Amino acid sequence: MSKQTRVAIAVALVAIAGFGAAFAYQLLAAPGPVDSSARTSTVVRSDSHRLGDEGDGKVTLVEFLDFECESCRAAYPFIEQLRARYAGEVTFVVRYFPIQSHRNADNAAYAVESAARQGKFEDMYKQMFETQLEWGERQDSQAKLFRSYAKDLGLDMSTYDQDVTSPAVAARVKRDVEDGMALGVSGTPTFFLDGKKLVAGSTEEFTLAIDRALAR
Q: pTM for the complete prediction?
C-alpha cells in the first residue's frame, strides 16, 4: 500500500472516529434516540445491496455512504482491499446516506439504485467513486453525466430514465437514510460490524476488529 493511499485512508478513519470535522459531513437534523429493536432490524435489510458474493454469514460489514463524500472515496480502496482479503468470509453491505449539503449526492444515489435494478449495482458503485474528482462538489446537476455512465454500462436507457426519476427509487434511498438516522448515523462513512457501530483509529484497528469478529 502506498504512503499516499495510507494517508487517504487514515483521513477517512479519522472521520469515522468523529474527529475529522472537515470531512465528517453532518446532517442538519439531529438523529433521535436509538432503541435496541431498531438497531437489530435496520442495520441490514433483506434487500440491502451486497458487494460481490456473500460471505458465509458469520460476519457482516455495513457501510452507510455518500458517493460525493471525500472520506468515502478515500476509504473506497481500503474497502476493496478488505473485500479481497476476506472474500467468502465477510459479507459487505452498502447503504445509501446522501448528505443534503452535497448538491449531487441524491442524484448519484438515484443513478446507482437505478443501475442496481438492472443488475449493475457494483459497476455503478465503483464508477461513482472512481470518477468523483470529476463531478464532486459541483453545484450544477451532474445527472446527465451519471446517465452517460449508465449508457457505458450497457443499461436499457429507457428503463433507466424511468427509474432514476421515479418515486420508487427515491423512496428506496430515503429508507436507507431513515434507517441510518435511527441508528445514530450523522456522517459518512459510518460502519457497522455485526450490527454494532465500528469506530477505528487506523486501518490496523479496523482489520483487527474484523479478525476478532471472525474468531468469535
A: 0.82
